[in-house]
Amino acid sequence: MVNIWKNWMTRTKMTSRDSWKQLAPRVFQDSKGVWYHRFEDEMQIPIERMKEIQTCIREITNKVSDTDLLAFLDNQSKIIYGNEPADKKLEMLARHNSILKERTEFTVAAPDLLMGLVAVLYIREDEDPYVVSKDIQEQKVAQFTADSRGVLADFFYKAGLSAYLPSPSGLTTGTERLLKQSMDLTAKARMYEKHLAEATS
Predict the structure, then answer these.
(1) CA–CA separation, 54 and 52 (whole Å)
(2) Does some domain include residue 39?
(3) pTM for the full predicted model
């Protein structure tokens, strides 16, 4: 009975893995000719991918990635438990907090957070939809970022990301400027965290 159950589960899983493209039709092709799919029904999205989508949406809402937030908290602890005088600690904590506050209160999230969400939502044709691979995510983000200024500009900024950008008309109405400012702010904050981590080690 156990073997029958295992065989049925294996066949079901294999069929599901082989037929996912029926539930997620082709949406666009990148500049290298690779096709990307997206599930039409959110209820069909594999659980691991849905969890990653929810993480990406939270990061976009917070304007900060989980990785950056952990770096902030680590540095916060280093400041608090460091050997500096109390007045120096207060000065460092105030500066540290103001940088995160400025970043989280900005109008839009950094482009890398938005592209991270796109990379989870749109599944590369050679990708396993049931697994979210960090390496494949990085490859897709790099490809999408490169294509977002060229062949896929209209898709990313006028269609594919319209739900996440402040203006559905895309970059032509100031969104490009906001994304650039957000990217600069994020880069500055990450550099500050790096320097702070090195200084307090």
Answers:
(1) 5
(2) no
(3) 0.75
